[in-house]
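User: Teach me something about this protein's shape.
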Amino acid sequence: MVVLGDSLVAGYNLPAEEAFPAQLEAALHAADVAVEVVNAGVSGGTTAGGLQRVNSVVEQQPDYVLIVLGGNDLLRGFNPKQTQENLAGIIEILQAANIRVMLAGMPAPLNYGPRFAKQFNGIYEVLAAEYGTALYPSFLEGVFGNRMLMQYDGIHPNTEGVAEIVKRILPDVKAWLEE
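Assistant: First, the predicted structure itself:
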């Protein structure tokens, strides 16, 4: 499995063994799921960058790709329509290569305004329904906003925050891999 993402995947300010893909792989192994999890996270990555990089992911011939993108689009105030088009392009390329896909959502904070938040938040559900992908609705659920689980910047999870993300997403990922 490849995790295609941004700094939340790359493990911003964390040792490689504490980044999300490494912790997810360890948790899956502990749950008797034999899978290698490859880190394809790039700090600062956007959905447009993910679309540019997706062919290098396909070349690795993974069976599964978990997409964790959209956070930087959000932070930069990109048009939700463009984010959706980029994610759709990534999904189409992966599915054309017979790679199973799971999307992890990035809900917009309310300070962007209710209209923007509604547009952005709907992207992941629409794409999951349209393309028949698995969906984990909120990647940072239970972590974002909790200062004990976040780094000093308030954007990136610390080691304990990543562990909490893994704990929460693990049942969904495990079920997706076992389908």
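Now, about its shape. The chain has a mean pLDDT of 96. The chain has seven helices and five strands. If you'd like, I can walk through any region in more detail.
User: That's plenty for now, thanks!
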